[in-house]
Amino acid sequence: MSRARADEEEYWHSSKFRAFTFDDEDDELSQLKESKRAVNSLRDIVDDDDDDLEKVSWSGEPVGSISWSIKETASSSSSLEGRDTSLQKGSSSYSALPKQVSSYSLSSLFKGRNRLPSLPSLSDAFSDTGVKNYAPELRRPKAEYKDYSNDWSPRDTVRRMQRGKVCSLERFRSLQDKLVLLDEAVAGHDGNVITAVLIFLKRTLRREVLFRELEVRQVALCHLIHFLKETGEQKLLLDLLRFLDRTEEVALSQYREHLNIQDVEKKREFLKGCIGLPFSAEDISHIQDHYTLLERQIIIEANDRHLAMAGQSEIFRKYPRKASILNMPLVTTLFYSCFYHYTEAEGTFSSPTNLKKTFKIPDKQYVLTALAARAKLRAWEDVDALLTTKNWLGYTKKKAPIGFHRVVEILQRNNAPVQVLQEYVRLVEDVETRLNLATKYKCHDVVIDTYRDLKDRIQLMAYKCKVERGSAEEEKINSLLSNMQIRWKN
Amino acid sequence: MSPLDRIANVSVLKQHEVDKLYRVENRPAPSTSDQLCFLVRPRVRTMRYIADIVNADKMSGRSRKYKIIFSPQKFYACEMVLEEEGVFGDVTCDEWSFYLLPLDEDIISMELPEFFRDYFLEGDHRWINSVARALQLLNSLYGPFSRAYGIGRCAKMSYELWRDLEEESESDGQGRKPEIGNIFLMDRDTDYVTALCSQVVYEGLVDDTFRIKCGSVDFGPEVTSSDKSIKVLLNAQDKIFSQIRNEHFSSVFGFLSQKSRNLQAQYDRRQGMDIKQMKNFVSQELKGLKQEHRLLSLHIGACESIMKKKTKQDFQEMIKVEHALLEGFDIRESTSFIEEHIDRQVSPIESLRLMCLLSITENGLIPKDYRSLKTQYLQSYGPEHLLTFHNLKHIGLLTEQTAGETLTAMESRVSKLVTDRAAGKITDAFNSLAKKSNFRAISKKLSLIPRVDGEYNLKMPRDMAYVFSGAYTPLSCKIIEQVSPPTRSPRAEHRFVRPAPLR
C-alpha cells in the first residue's frame, strides 16, 4: 500500500509537462508539500454532506459507487486495447486512491461545476470558493502558486507560453479544448508555442485523431512535420504523410535516408529498395540511375583498386588516383572513365561508351567530358578524333557539338601547344571571338588569315608588331600587304 | 561563432576564467574541466549532442556541472529532448536574449541564417517571436516608429506579434525624439530576383569572392602580398572601403589608382621638408598615411583577385545572360547557356542560381526544359540533388509551368494574323493575364528595369539600378523610394537604402 502511495505522490509531485518549468524544482516541491498538508487538514474543517469520505477512482467515479463497479467489471473481462494514450482514456484498472491523498470530499469541492470532474488536482481545490470560506488562512495570492495548474483560458495560456512562463497543459483534456488551444497558438504566430502544444497533443491523442485534425490546419501541420523531421521520428512522419496521401513525399522522405548511410554496399541495397517507392514517373528513372550508377562505381572501384595496387597498368602509375569514384556524380564518373579506360571496348563496365549507352548521355555532354579528359592527358590525336566526323563521301569534317571556343578554352587550360590550339581557334565561327582568342593565345596564322579575309589592312599592319622580327609570320604579313590582288577595305 | 567574435574575443573570455572553447559536435567533450557551459542555438540536434556528452559522463561516473545558454531563446522542443534523454535535471538552462548585432554604422543584423529555411521551406514560425522582440528592442532604443509598412505574410505576423508585445509592456516612448521614423517589413520571397542576380558593386563582389561574415573577411596571401592571411573588419571605419563599397566595380579601379597617386604625392612631400615640418609630418600625418596605404594595398589586392576569379568564370557572359533574363529577351540562348554551365560542372550553386532566375522571370520553366535541365544537373552534380529540386519547387524558386500558363490556342491564332513585333506585344499582354505572381507585371508597374537609350551611365547613374549595372532596381529599394518623401538625389538616397535593409 505504501508503495502505491509513493507512486501516487510521485505522480502528484511531478509535473506532467515539466518542460515549462523554468523555476527551481525544490520550490515547487516544498509548496506542494505544504498544499498537501493543508488539504489533509481540511478534513477536519470541511463540512461535508457525506459522512463517509469518498474514495475516488481515476475516472472520477467515487469508489464503491455503481459506476465504478461497472467499470471494474468491464475492465477485468475485456482486454484493454493496446493504444498508446495516457490517462485520458483512463483505464479503471488503477486502484482506488489511498486515503491519504484524495480522501476528501471531492463531490463537495466540485459543487457547482457543470463538467464531469476531471482528474482532481490539488490547487483546483483551492480555487473553489467554497474552500476559501472554510479556511481563510489558506488563501494565498495566485501568483505564488506559479501557475501549477489553474484557470487560464487557452488564449491566455498561449500568451503566457509566448512570454516563456510555466504552463501546464494537462487541464486541456477534451478534444475541443485541445483544438481551441492549438488554434489559439497558431493565431499567436509563435512557432515555439505551436510546437509545444503539438508535443502535448501528440502525447495525449491517438495518432489518427491528431492527423485528422491537423489535416485541416495547415500551419500546425507544417510545424508537426518539421518537428518530426528534427527529432528523427521517421516512422510517425511517414505514417502522417501517408495519411495525407502525400505519397511522393513519403518516397522522398525515405530516399533522403540514404544520405546517412556510409557503407556503399548497404547504400546500394537501400537504393535498390527505393526503386519501388511511389515517386513521380520522371523521378523513378532518376532513382534507377542513382542505383545503377552506384552499382557500377562499386565494380569499377574494386577493379581499379586492384589494378592500381598491382602496379602493372601504366596509366595508374603515371597518374595515381587521388580519390575513389564512389558516390561521384555521373559526369565525374564519365571523366574518370575517359581518363583511365578510354580505349576499352563497349562491353566492359568501365568503358566510356558503355557508360554513355547505359545512362543515355547526350552527345554534347559526352564530347565535352571526353575532350576534357583527353586534353588533360595531352592526347591531342584523341581530341582530334573526337571532333572529326566522316560524312558518306568519306570526307572528314571537324564538328563540335559544344562550340569551338569551348574546345579552345579546354585545350588552353591544359597547356596545349600553339599548333594544336591554332587548328581549333581557326574553326571558331564568330569572327570577333576568333580574333580575341587567336590574339590572346598567339595563334598568329589565324589572326593574319582572318584579317586577310576581313580585308582589314590597318589591323593587319598593326598586328605586325606582335609577331617576331624575321619570322615566317612577318613575311606572310608583308607578302599579303604587298599583294596587289587584294582589295583592302581600308 | 562569428557573431560572438564581434562581441568578445577569446582573451576577454579567458579573463572570465574560460579555459577552452570547443564546438558542440557529435563527439565527446575533450575537456577536463569540471564545468561545461554550452552556448547554443535552440536546435534539437544540438540537444542530443549535449545529452550524449552528459550521459557519457554519467556512464563513466564523472560528475560535472553543465549549463546551457540558449541564444536567442529556449524552445520547448529542446527541453522536451533534454527530458527525454534523461539529462534535464543535470543541466541548468538560461537564455541570452541576443537579438541584434550592429555590423556597421547603419546595418544591424539578427544573424539568423536559419530563418530562411525554417520559415520559407519548412513553414515553421519559430523565429517570429525573435523578430518581434528585435523590433521591440529597436523601438525602445530608437523609436517610437511612426509608421510601419510591410509586404508578405511573415511581415504581417511579425508586426502583429510585435504590437502585442508593445501593448503588454509598459514602456513609455513619449517625449523622446525617434531616430527611426518608418519601418518596412518585407518578406524575402516578395523579391527573390535581387538575391539571385550577380552582385557588381564592390562590397558584393568581395562577398562573392571571399565571403563576408559578420562584417569581417579573411584575405589570403594572394591579397596581402605576403605569406600571411589576415582578417579585416569591413565597415565604415575603413576609410577606403567606405568610399568604394557601394560603387560599381567598373569605377573602383579608377578610384583606387587615383587614391594611390594621391598617396604617393603625400609621401613625396617629404622631399621638400625641413626638420620642423618633417617632425610635424611624422607625428601627425604619417600614421594616417600608413594606415591608408595598408588599406589601399589590401583593397587593390582584393580587386585583382576578384578580377582574376571573374574572368576565369566567364563573368561577363553570365551577366549578359542575367540581363537578358531580366528583360525577357533571348530566352532560348539563356537556357542554352545555363545548360552548358551545368554540363561543364562549373559550380553547383551558380547553376542553380541561374536556373532559379530563369524560373522566376519566366514564371516557371517550360516542362521540357525543366526535365532536361534537371536531368543534366543530377548527372553533373550528383543524383542526390533530386531532393534539392524538390525543395526548390516547394519554395517556389524553381518551378515548372503548368499547362494553363502556356499560350492558348486563341493567342497563337491571333499572333498568326499580325506581324511579329505586334504579336510580341499582344502575347505579352495575354501572358500577363494568364500568369499569377508575375515578375514582369511587377517590374513593369514599378519600373524596376530602367529604359535606357544608349549606354547606361555607370559613373553618374540617375537611379538605383546601377547596383546591377543598370539592369534592375531591387524591389525593396524601389518601394522605400516610392513611399518615402522625395528629398535628395538618387545617389544620396541609396546610401541609406540597401537591397536588404532589415535582415
UniProtKB/TrEMBL annotation, chain A:
It is found in: Cytoplasmic vesicle; Early endosome; Late endosome. GO terms for cellular component: early endosome; late endosome. InterPro entries: Spe-39. Its main location: cytoplasm. GO terms for biological process: intracellular protein transport; vacuolar transport. Keywords: Cytoplasmic vesicle, Endosome. This is Spermatogenesis-defective protein 39 homolog. It comes from Chrysolophus pictus (Golden pheasant). The lineage of its organism: Eukaryota, Metazoa, Chordata, Craniata, Vertebrata.
From TrEMBL, chain B:
GO terms for biological process: protein transport; vesicle-mediated transport. The keyword Ribosomal protein does not apply. Its main location: membrane. The keyword NADP does not apply. It holds the Pfam family Sec1. GO terms for cellular component: late endosome membrane; lysosomal membrane. It is found in: Late endosome membrane; Lysosome membrane. InterPro entries: Sec-1-like_dom1, Sec-1-like_dom3a, Sec1-like, Sec1-like_dom2, Sec1-like_sf, VPS33_dom3b. It is a peripheral membrane protein. Keywords: Protein transport, Transport. Belongs to the STXBP/unc-18/SEC1 family. This is Vacuolar protein sorting-associated protein 33B. It comes from Chrysolophus pictus (Golden pheasant).
